[in-house]
Design goal:
alpha+beta; 161 residues; single chain
C-alpha cells in the first residue's frame, strides 16, 4: 500500500527572556551602542574594553539604577527606551540605522512628538523641513532633508536641552 503523508508546516516565533533585559535586545554590544544618548563619553569609552560578562553587568547596573519600580523584575523605563529604538529603526532607517539619525535621537530622548509639520524650506522644493512640536516640554525641533532622500538633519543641533 502506498501512504501519502500530509505535512503541515508551521512557523513559530519565540524569544528567550533574560531577566534584566528588554525583550527587544538581541545583542549586548548593539544595545550598549544604542544607549549612547544616556551615557557619557567616559562610559562609552570604558565599555569598549569590557568582556561580555562585564558588559552585561554594566548594562544591568545602569538600568537597575534608573528603574522606576526597582522592587519588580520588569523595568518600564528600559522597555520604553528600547521600544523607541525599535521604532526609529523601523521608521527612520536610511543612510544609517534609524537610532543613529537626528530624528532617531530626538525620538529616543523625548518620544513621539505631539505634532509634526512638514513644508518646503525657503521655497526650495528639494529641501523639506519637518518641525516636531513637543507641547509638554515646550520644545520644537526643526529638521531639514539635506538631499531630498529623507536624510533629515537637526537644523539647530545645540537646541536639544
Amino acid at each position: 500500500k502506498e501512504f501519502k503523508k500530509n505535512v503541515i508546516e508551521e512557523n513559530v516565533n519565540f524569544s528567550i527572556y533574560k531577566a534584566g533585559f528588554s525583550s527587544s535586545i538581541k545583542d549586548i554590544d548593539i544595545a550598549l551602542n544604542q544607549m549612547k544618548y544616556m551615557l557619557d563619553n567616559n562610559q562609552l569609552l570604558l565599555i569598549r574594553s569590557y568582556n561580555k560578562a562585564e558588559k552585561e553587568n554594566f548594562f544591568n547596573q545602569t538600568w537597575k539604577a534608573k528603574d522606576p519600580t526597582p522592587s519588580t523584575e520588569y523595568n518600564e523605563l528600559m522597555e520604553e527606551y528600547f521600544n523607541r529604538v525599535s521604532y526609529t529603526i523601523e521608521h527612520f532607517d536610511g543612510w544609517e540605522a534609524g537610532w543613529k539619525t537626528d530624528r532617531g535621537m530626538v525620538y529616543i530622548l523625548f518620544g513621539a512628538p505631539d505634532e509634526i509639520n512638514s513644508f518646503n524650506s525657503n521655497n526650495n522644493l528639494n529641501k523639506i523641513r519637518q518641525v516636531w512640536v513637543y507641547r509638554k516640554i515646550g520644545k520644537e525641533f526643526s529638521f531639514i532633508d539635506q538631499n531630498g532622500f529623507g536624510d533629515y538633519r537637526l537644523d539647530s543641533p545645540f537646541s536639544l536641552f
